[in-house]
Design a protein that fits this description.
The protein is an alpha/beta fold. Helices cover about 30% and strands about 25% of the residues. It has a seven-stranded mixed sheet, sandwiched between helices. Strands 3-4-5-11 form a four-stranded antiparallel sheet, with no helix packed on it.
Length: about 300
């Protein structure tokens, strides 16, 4: 389920690791709270997503705002990310649809909301939207043409971010959902503005994303698996989520939730592989062997429900 902001900053580049990493001054202030200049938190190798086909790996820099806690990758290879999302085939979305418990969480959050039209940003194959009754008009934003085609076969109207920004859908939807999308977006402020524009006053926004305030994320730090995904470039604390949404939304509630069902096999694999990967990293062999030290544990997401101001 992917949908990214199209208004990403462009920068000049210099080579680092196996790919071109753009070089640009760090933003003078946090894009969300506008109070502190972000400081570099750490560097991490990236082995998948837009960088999966590289012979060597790329090292990305993560920056953090000390005021709201917003953690993000900077700078970005925006064209490489755009090509990656556009080229994703149906297999990618089929794999994401294997875990449906998150869809249940979103549908339950929307139960009190009277709906005639809903927009799912990053709708994938339309699996989530297909569960809604036929009397609800279903719309989706999806950058992968293969996935968008399958969604259309499920009676999902595919629209582009440009359609929404252009005013075609101003105050049109009763609800907008973004399931596992925020972490893929660089310009969160533009994304918020676009979503708010599409919702009618009093309309509901429901988000599911990783939670930097979760015990798992706090304990694991740079070894938290979530920030090792090449596609994940923005991570929020609960305060950052509140600050980000505040200009356009009210009654923001945040619930700590589990994204994946527990798997003892996955946990065992993590426990066995992590010490080896960590040792290779400390010995300077990780880059050559293309392994990174990361740990996977549950209960590290947040469900965010907010109402657009103005009703």
């Amino acid at each position: 389920m992917i949908g990214t902001s199209t208004s990403l900053p462009m920068h000049s580049g210099e080579r680092q690791g196996g790919s071109m990493v753009e070089s640009s001054p760090v933003p003078p202030e946090c894009r969300l709270c506008r109070r502190e200049k972000p400081r570099k938190a750490f560097d991490l190798p990236v082995l998948d997503g837009p960088y999966e086909s590289e012979i060597e790996w790329t090292v990305r820099s993560f920056y953090r705002c000390s005021n709201c806690g917003y953690l993000f990758v900077y700078p970005l290879e925006t064209e490489q990310y755009a090509r990656h999302y556009a080229a994703l085939d149906a297999t990618y979305h089929e794999d994401h649809d294997q875990e449906t418990s998150r869809y249940f969480l979103i549908r339950k959050a929307l139960e009190p909301v009277p709906m005639s039209r809903v927009l799912d940003w990053g709708c994938g194959r339309g699996t989530f939207l297909s569960a809604f009754p036929n009397n609800i008009e279903k719309y989706g934003v999806e950058l992968s043409s293969a996935a968008a085609l399958q969604a259309e076969r499920r009676n999902v109207h595919i629209v582009s971010p440009e359609d929404i920004d252009g005013g075609k859908f101003d105050e049109y939807f009763d609800a907008v959902t973004a399931i596992d999308v925020v972490e893929h977006v660089s310009d969160l402020v533009s994304f918020r503005n676009t979503v708010a524009r599409a919702l009618h006053p009093g309309g509901t926004l429901v988000l599911l994303t990783g939670n930097l305030d979760s015990s798992v994320a706090r304990i694991l730090g740079r070894y938290w698996y979530y920030i090792h995904y090449g596609e994940h470039i923005s991570c929020l604390t609960e305060r950052a989520a509140q600050v980000w949404l505040e200009p356009d939304f009210e009654t923001v509630t945040i619930q700590r939730v589990t994204h994946h069902k527990s798997s003892y096999i996955a946990l065992l694999r993590t426990v066995l592989i992590f010490p080896v990967a960590w040792m290779f990293e400390k010995l300077g062999l990780a880059r050559k062997l293309r392994v990174s030290a990361k740990l996977f544990l549950d209960s590290d997401h947040m469900l965010v429900i907010a109402r657009r101001k103005g009703c």
